[in-house]
């Protein structure tokens, strides 16, 4: 058998060379393409590796804290942690810290929202009248939501005099106890005319509910209170209007050491000191560190007009307040100034006052926490197109009550007080928590330092968690209309405590202070379980490898067993854009379509799983194309030696020896092709910039041998089973019904059906190629359907496409060569018949058309079957047939026909150059 194989290889060098080249191309293509797929997977794993880990690996939450939307979709809304208030006990946290395998366990207790007030003096010296007294009207509008929301305040009337103001010892700078020194030694009370607060009962908690307001100031001595003048830093001769703006401040408690280890918070301090220095609060105040920016979109627009001078003079004439208010509110004067004051100025003043007091003797120099609110999660319904739509809510007006403030400002006792932004549309249920204890001794707080969240050690935007503690919410336009309304900018929170957007924690304290606040909270909600979440980083995690994943999984199981709390593995999560239809506001903002970055938990796991499936599908399809190509080449080699094998059979060779000889020949060619492929694969892969390992290259040799032997099994078996006489002189096939083919197409169809096996082999090669392209489009679509919504998934899908297209191109190239080989063999085996047609008057062009027609028919049959099979498989796998995949299947079908035509060019040229005389003489 070996001598037969060697003799056949020596005397049939041409066909053996074709088979060798086929195996070389197929094996090299398989190695390079699998290297391409492996490089693709390495890039995917590398991208996941690089962006796999955020601040923490595990999030421990109170039992039952997952929302219905999270349970159904696996998505968690941005800033979700801000809405969890308590639920984990200190004992549960201590048990978590003692578990093996935990690098850091950092708790955070979301206490609630308190309000802080910043002050800004608007200079108006340049708009005063010529007389001693000026009365200015200030029309103030709160502007939020990028200018779409406009909430008007009640008008404010600022009385400014060049004479000194005086204040009584019992009333301080309160307006009703203020007088004006009209002459030396003579004071006139101006509260008689300007104290309007009690004229109309407040109709609600918001600043505009109490009607017009008044103030008095002097260019000589401010508002008459030396301390407050010092705080406001007013210079003699200047006139200002004092504005105040409230901020909802989410107060949270942390373990300073654990937070420094987990998030590097201590390295983000920009002023003052980090938590943990008792000397910074000598009076025993609760220590705070504050974010250096408010992350709020709220500004005040002022329109200042000057009323007639005679109206200002009536203030010192003793005119009753009700009469003066009735007269003043009907008057209008020229606009003398327009000013816009941003929230950053108010916020900076507030922090400066809290952190750097002028005196330790005043309650106004630090924060007194008399009440705070907890805000529930937003509930969602379905909007247009299945998009999420927040459900508006209405909070009980009692939620704005302030027992402490009501005791010192009776005017607000019934209605309470609330930031003006909270008058807008509300989407969260609020709960009021009143504080007990002495406002100075027990509830006092002081800011000891400021931190900048943007200076925290950065994490990849692909793996950043909207559940992170310090991230501001990210809400961007979701369509062109919204983008035009917002001028391309995103939405930010405002002072609406129950609004859709809420800021991250802007004030942080320590766990000892959390316990203190919990003990002072009326009702004791926080006393039992003050912690909201525990963020855990697992030790020994190096990437998305199985060992690291098992370590995380084991720690998660241990936490559940030790505490019974809800545990989420956040490692491998990535933001996913979610479209939300935000209903219209109550003060001008229209309905908006926005996008938010929600958390898609565990997306990296799915990316790795889907990547493996995609690579496996790619390998199988490449192997199928290479195998069909080799089967065709092996069959061609056997068919050319058909007569020779028949002679050997006539001489007594057994079927077993014939089978072994043919298979040995094919195996030798496969072994040589594998060796050459191993030598060629490395430089070819390097030229394409691919990573092909040495074991994979060495594996090419046995793989090529096995592939060649498998491809030669059927041809060898057929060669050994053909009767010797038929092999020497093939028997004529007698048709039951003779039918003369009509035209070139009929002749082409007759020629293809004469050798159905060979025709089926060529069509099958194109079938697999078209099927491969169609299914890969479907697999890619399914891959995108699972991870394209996340930022990490989008980045990986973009990396995967070039490798997919490279694989498809090479597979179609092999399919084209296989069809060309089928047509070439048809021409060689029918050379006598074709020569006879030429002798009877067929032109060379007609014969070329005959060969091209055969190629077209192979392309049509193989392409149609491949497209149909691919579309059916995609529909079965994905559950639907996207239009893009259907269009891709049609395109693959057309491409198969075009390539079949190109494959017939060389055989068509050969048929026109047949040596008619020599062929007819041999026939």
3D structure, described in words:
This protein has 923 residues and is an alpha+beta fold. It has 29 helices and 27 strands. The strands form six sheets. Strands 1, 3, 11, 12, 13, 16, 21, 23, 24 and 25 form a ten-stranded mixed sheet that branches. A hairpin with a 4-residue loop joins strand 4 and strand 5 (149-152). The longest helix is centred in the last third of the chain and has 39 residues, at 791-829. Residues 360-365 and 731-735 have low confidence and may be disordered.
Q: Could you tell me the strand content as a percent range?
A: 15-25%
Secondary structure class reads alpha+beta
- Total beta-strand segments: 27
**Count of runs of 4 or more consecutive helical residues:** 29
Roughly what is the average pLDDT, rounded to an integer?
80
Largest sheet: 10 strands, mixed
> What overall geometry do the principal axes of the alpha carbons give?
elongated
Cα radius of gyration in angstroms: 42 Å
